[in-house]
Write a structure and sequence with these properties.
The chain has 146 residues and is mainly β. Helix content is 12%, strand content 36%. It is built from 1 helix and 8 strands.
Length: 146
């Protein structure tokens, strides 16, 4: 048996309130529904503060993770039809070659990479991941040539 609504929605009620249409036998008689509270500006302000705090905080490098100032690196994600590839781009402006180790929270095994002076290297750490989010770590040391 399907229930059907009877009665009216309370067109003569105060603005902002309406009477819930009652089911047969008066089950919901007199229940008032209020419009959503006007907390939208406050919630937007709180959401903005959370995003701002997240963006402005700089992650601290764990112990053992060091990179010379002439080496810049950034994580990247590339979508393919079967999943996401996790990449780490390393750019060197150093005068000497550098030996780098790259690892992520998804693949904790360290990959060793040689970065020549003035070159860019792209390290693929994971292929076809279901997740587009990962945390990359890079540790580099300059190699002085004799």
């Amino acid at each position: 048996m399907s229930a059907r609504l009877v009665g009216r929605t309370g067109a003569t009620m105060r603005p902002g309130l309406r009477l819930l249409a009652r089911w047969p036998h008066g089950a919901f008689r007199g229940i008032l529904l209020r419009p959503p509270m006007k907390y939208a500006p406050v919630s937007r302000l709180v959401a903005f503060a959370v995003v701002l705090a997240t963006v402005c905080t700089t992650p601290q490098s764990p112990a053992g993770e060091s990179v010379p100032s002439c080496i810049a690196w950034s994580p990247a994600v590339r979508y393919r039809g079967i999943g996401y590839d996790h990449l780490v781009n390393i750019r060197s402006t150093c005068e000497e070659p550098a030996d780098c180790e790259v690892w992520t929270n998804v693949t904790p095994d360290k990959q060793r990479v040689e970065v020549s002076p003035g070159r860019n290297v792209q390290v693929v750490t994971f292929v076809a991941s279901p997740s587009s989010v990962f945390e990359a770590h890079v540790a580099c040391s300059l190699r002085s040539e004799p």
